[in-house]
Amino acid sequence: MPFSSTHNKHKLKFSAEEEFPDLSKHNNHMAKVLTPELYKRLRDKETPSGFTLDDVIQTGVDNPGHPFIMTVGCVAGDEESYEVFKDLFDPVIQDRHGGYKPTDKHRTDLNHENLK
């Protein structure tokens, strides 16, 4: 079922500067990465199912986090979110997972003898 992005279409009537959220008191990875320039560049994009940047960041806007606990602050609505919004997700994932880059590959080892 596609996401309903009617609210996002309405928001596009306003400039990116007017719609950019105040993240000054937020403690999450999204708030560290998202700049007004990045917001402006990504705000009119959406995935084939209708997931938008505002959908991606809404949880981080609504939940500023705790001063001592760094939260992620964004969510992927579907598989395509990672590609459409890669300029936001890649640095968030890299920051959250200790330098895990988009080019890195997860090593799978199912040999129980290699457990430490």
Automatic annotation (TrEMBL):
Bilayer-crossing regions: none
Example GO molecular function: creatine kinase activity
InterPro entries, per database record: ATP-guanido_PTrfase, ATP-guanido_PTrfase_N, ATP-guanido_PTrfase_N_sf
Chain intervals for the UniProt region annotation (Disordered): 96-116
A Pfam family annotated for this UniProt entry: ATP-gua_PtransN
GO biological process: phosphocreatine biosynthetic process
GO cellular component, one term: extracellular space
Domain Phosphagen kinase N-terminal positions: 11-98
Its job: Reversibly catalyzes the transfer of phosphate between ATP and various phosphogens (e.g. creatine phosphate). Creatine kinase isoenzymes play a central role in energy transduction in tissues with large, fluctuating energy demands, such as skeletal muscle, heart, brain and spermatozoa.
Protein family per UniProt: Belongs to the ATP:guanido phosphotransferase family.
Oligomeric and partner information: Dimer of identical or non-identical chains, which can be either B (brain type) or M (muscle type). With MM being the major form in skeletal muscle and myocardium, MB existing in myocardium, and BB existing in many tissues, especially brain.
Record-linked PANTHER family: ARGININE OR CREATINE KINASE (PTHR11547), CREATINE KINASE M-TYPE (PTHR11547:SF63)
Name of the molecule in the record: Creatine kinase M-type
